[in-house]
Amino acid sequence: MFCDSRYSSSSTSSRCRWVCHVFLSFRGEDTRKNFTDHLYSALVRTGIYTFRDDNELPKGEEISKQLLKAIEESRISIVVFSKGYASSTCCLDELAKIMECKDAIGQIVILIFYNIDPSDVRKQKKEFCRSF
């Protein structure tokens, strides 16, 4: 679901025009029908324009240019790390783009660790070790 309202940012970068306040990055099969649905609903209910991709990409398929654009046009990205996040090439591609936007345009990145220990990601243990 793409955001349908425009938000003009008064950020330090005058070249940015935010279309969405928040971009949600998550592994669909891990969190779509529970945590991410609740988070998305809470954000929208409070008036925060939020992008959430409702389409499941077939395994091995690249993320679309439209999705990359949605990342670029969001002021904040929320990354929901879950057990299967790193096993998805699409999730890792999204994460790479998010970090690129963080460095290039100052996008705010918020990390959420859903049913995993943050050290599993940081030290690439358990599921993250196998994926990397």
Automatic annotation (TrEMBL):
<keyword id="KW-0520">NAD</keyword>
<keyword id="KW-0378">Hydrolase</keyword>
<dbReference type="Pfam" id="PF01582">
    <property type="entry name" value="TIR"/>
</dbReference>
<dbReference type="GO" id="GO:0061809">
    <property type="term" value="F:NAD+ nucleosidase activity, cyclic ADP-ribose generating"/>
</dbReference>
<protein>
    <recommendedName>
        <fullName>ADP-ribosyl cyclase/cyclic ADP-ribose hydrolase</fullName>
        <ecNumber>3.2.2.6</ecNumber>
    </recommendedName>
</protein>
<feature type="domain" description="TIR">
    <location>
        <begin position="18"/>
        <end position="132"/>
    </location>
</feature>
<dbReference type="GO" id="GO:0007165">
    <property type="term" value="P:signal transduction"/>
</dbReference>
<dbReference type="InterPro" id="IPR000157">
    <property type="entry name" value="TIR_dom"/>
</dbReference>
<dbReference type="InterPro" id="IPR035897">
    <property type="entry name" value="Toll_tir_struct_dom_sf"/>
</dbReference>
